[in-house]
Automatic annotation (TrEMBL):
InterPro entries in the record: MMS22L-TONSL_complex_comp (IPR052311), TPR-like_helical_dom_sf (IPR011990)
Matches recorded under Gene3D superfamilies: Tetratricopeptide repeat domain (1.25.40.10)
Protein name as it appears in the record: Tonsoku-like protein
Record flagged with keyword Ribonucleoprotein: no
The UniProt record lists the keyword Amino-acid biosynthesis: no
Length: 110
């Protein structure tokens, strides 16, 4: 997907997120933030990707939704792993964080 398409997706999901926020539909608001984060990951904007995935995680945790908590952990792990593979900045931190979040994801499944 070209960067313009990712940016378009971000704008669309931000609009959707605002609708869900106004409707007080927390889980769907969180899922929209997950999608925003995934689009930022596609743009290699790891900081913004992580920001939106953490919004998603916090909502999933506050709603005690284990399926979404597991998915959030896995997605956050994927961001750290991709950051490690693409940038090598803070390599040890990013690889360890990826492992930690992937393991948390697996623990939720148990």
């Amino acid at each position: 997907m070209k960067s313009g398409r990712f940016q378009q997706a971000i704008e669309e999901f931000k609009t959707l997120a605002e609708v869900y926020k106004l409707e007080h539909n927390q889980i769907e608001y969180g899922k929209a933030n997950r999608a925003i984060g995934e689009a930022y990951l596609g743009l290699h904007n790891f900081k913004k990707a992580l920001k939106h995935q953490k919004i998603y995680f916090n909502i999933a945790a506050s709603e005690k939704n284990n399926e979404e908590i597991q998915r959030a952990y896995a997605t956050i792990g994927h961001i750290y792993l991709t950051t490690y593979l693409e940038t090598q900045a803070d390599a040890d931190h990013n690889l360890n964080a990826a492992y930690k979040y992937f393991m948390r994801s697996m623990e939720v499944c148990e």
